[in-house]
Automatic annotation (TrEMBL):
This is Large ribosomal subunit protein uL23. Keywords: Ribonucleoprotein, Ribosomal protein, RNA-binding, rRNA-binding. Part of the 50S ribosomal subunit. Contacts protein L29, and trigger factor when it is bound to the ribosome. GO terms for molecular function: rRNA binding; structural constituent of ribosome.
Length: 96
């Protein structure tokens, strides 16, 4: 079994993700091979919160050019996690 820290890569801090925090939704970059159940269990273990719902989406890497050379940034997976109503927020995000 993988470590929860291998599944949850980092939090995603954007204007939209910060406004979603008021609704109890938190956004993370996760491992591409992780499924919703693994993401839920990892977050509950790391932060000690009750997860109600997990929405995931695969983000395709953008095309980038350097002169005539064309490349692509790496693709990644995003998870938007909704906490249960009785659960407190994730303290990692509190000061933002």
């Amino acid at each position: 079994m993988r470590s929860p820290h291998d599944i949850i890569r980092k939090p995603l801090v954007t204007e939209k993700s910060m406004s979603d925090m008021s609704e109890g939704k938190y956004t993370f970059v996760v491992d591409k091979s992780a499924n919703k159940t693994e993401i839920k269990n990892a977050l509950e273990k790391i932060f000690g919160v009750k997860v109600e719902k997990v929405n995931t989406m695969n983000m395709k890497g953008k095309l980038k050019r350097m002169g005539a050379n064309v490349g692509r940034r790496a693709s990644w997976k995003k998870a938007i996690v909704t906490l249960a109503a009785d659960s407190k927020g994730i303290e990692f995000f509190e000061g933002m």
